[in-house]
Amino acid sequence: MNIKNLSSQLSQDFQLKNISFNLHSGEILTLLGRSGSGKSSLLRCLAGLQNYQADICTIPRPLGMVFQSANLFAHLTLEENIKLALIKTQKKTNSEAQKICEQVLEQVQLSHRGKSKPHQLSGGEQQRGAIARTLALVPKVILYDEPTSALDPELVEEVFDLMLSLKKQGLTQIIVSHETRVVKKVSDFVGVMNQGELKWFGALADLKPQLHLMEPDEKKYLQIFT
Fold first, then answer.
1. What is the sign of the dihedral through the CA atoms of 59, 64, 69 and 73?
2. CA of 7: how far to CAs of 42, 68, 85, 161, 201, in Å?
3. How far is CA 103 from CA 79, 91, 107, 109, 140, in A?
4. Domain spanning 1-61+141-226 has what CATH number?
5. Residue-wise pLDDT tens digits, 177-197
């Protein structure tokens, strides 16, 4: 993934400005910053949900997105949630979709929960189910918008373990999060957003020596790791 000088006018008073970064297959970037700094808006641009301009924007496709809420259809089983897009948009037969569904449920360790409806699943299972639904479409990149913010601490670890498993399979992942553990446990790179700009980008070890150069809003998201 190669992004150079991405900009987007989000409102009359706020825009993303000249955002640039590079990620290779299997690398994980976590975007930090206060609410309203532009993190989620950047994800929406990368996902094609928000208009933008860029000198270069090379994003491997297909691309999947996982939101804060798992957004599973409440009236469908987990299997049916996963198969829906395969049948409706990719025109798979039911047997083809079922085979893919079984494969991705095994991948996220939810083979035993396929017949369950969302209200019968824990928060961690719902989020892993949402990731399975994304994996069924065979993405090369997954974007996560606060995927663990509504989960209990022990359930967060389930999602982190899955992210690391997907990393080993070569998937590039970008995570918007306020969860401090995500940086230490899964991230190769950290980006700090402030007022619509990607002010700092790099490995955590490379950013620590530059803390004294940062604004207070930027510094506080990295100080916890020093």
1. positive
2. 9, 24, 31, 33, 17
3. 11, 18, 6, 10, 17
4. 3.40.50.300
5. 877 778 888 999 999 999 999
Contact at 8 Å (CB) between 73 and 81? Answer: yes
Show me where the domains of the chain are located: 1-61+141-226, 75-139
- To the nearest 10 degrees (0 to 180), the angle between helices 78-88 and 123-135 is 20
Rounded to 5°, angle at Cα 122 from 101 and 36: 95
Contact indicator for 141, 122 with CB cutoff of 8 Å: no
Rounded to 5 degrees, φ, ψ at 81 are -60, -45
Structure tokens at 33: 């910053």
Q: Closest by alpha carbon to 101, among 80, 116, 121?
A: 80
pLDDT per position as a tens digit, 74-133: 999 999 999 999 999 999 999 999 999 999 999 999 999 999 999 999 988 999 999 999
**Residues 6+ away with beta carbon under 8 Å from 170:** 25, 26
Report the mean per-residue pLDDT for the chain. Answer: 92
Compute the distance between CA of residue 137 and CA of residue 223 in angstroms, rounded to an integer: 38
Rounded Cα gap, residues 98 and 101, in angstroms: 5
Which region, left, alpha or beta, applies to residue 208 given φ > 0 means left and ψ of -120 to 50 means alpha?
alpha
CB 86 within 8 A of CB 94: no
The three-state DSSP-derived secondary structure of 77-95 is CHHHHHHHHHHHCCCCCHH
